Amino acid sequence: MSRPHFSPRPARAAVLAPILVLLTALLTGATQPSVAGTALPAGTSAAKPTVVLVHGAFADASGWNDVAASLAAKGYPVVAPPNPLRGLTSDTAYLETFLSTISGPIVLVGHSYGGAVITNAATGDPDVKALVYIAAYALDEGENVAAANELGGGHSDLLEHIVVRPYPGAPEGDGDVYVDPAAFRSIFAHDLPRAQTVAMAAGQRPATFGALVTPSAEPAWRTVPSWYLIAGDDHLIPPLAQAAMAERAGARTRTVDSSHVAMMSHPRATTEMILQAAYATSRSGRP
User: What pTM was computed for the model?
Assistant: First the structure.
């Protein structure tokens, strides 16, 4: 897939920097803004990779809140962009475009369907130094999300508990896929407080059915070092399938006793794995 044309990253950053400084000055009331004073948060090293956190289906970027806060506290630049969830091809193009605005090395992290997106978006991007899968789809070429659930002989409860709703302009046979709210907690997040999962079920963001059955392109994990956190009590992506994908990708693997949302129920383990990837691929030494 060809990347949309943008100016080289360093040049783009050079253009944006004075604009950001000016906006900061206007918002804070400063009359003589200083570039040096606003370039980086306190404790941030310019050599540290930017950590990009990509959420999956039936969720949004808020699921990364605890992990993002922990990484930022250690001085890492962190962004958690929205995943459009409109289809693997277009979601990949969106993330590719987003990544093109980031200067320097990137550690790219995906949860669930977000793993399928990072697998495609990182291919051919020399700035992506590590892939981190958190209970995620590390698809192979030609494979789709639905098929990956069958790897290793496991079983997913997802397709037995979905609600499909139409959306304007949908191709024939397509629709928005939600997890049935009555089954959301048991499938998605049974180790979180019930009140929290009720709110998550009510506010879930659907993926199109087409996104779940679109074949993946060439996977970035063939050339990019990978890490994989297996959720050992996942009822959406079978742990056996996760283990099979991790082994196939040659990923450094750890298993935690977690539901599908390991980054929420086990934020410390998730953060530790991301830091391992950042350290292993950093040009500046230990994070």
Answer: 0.84
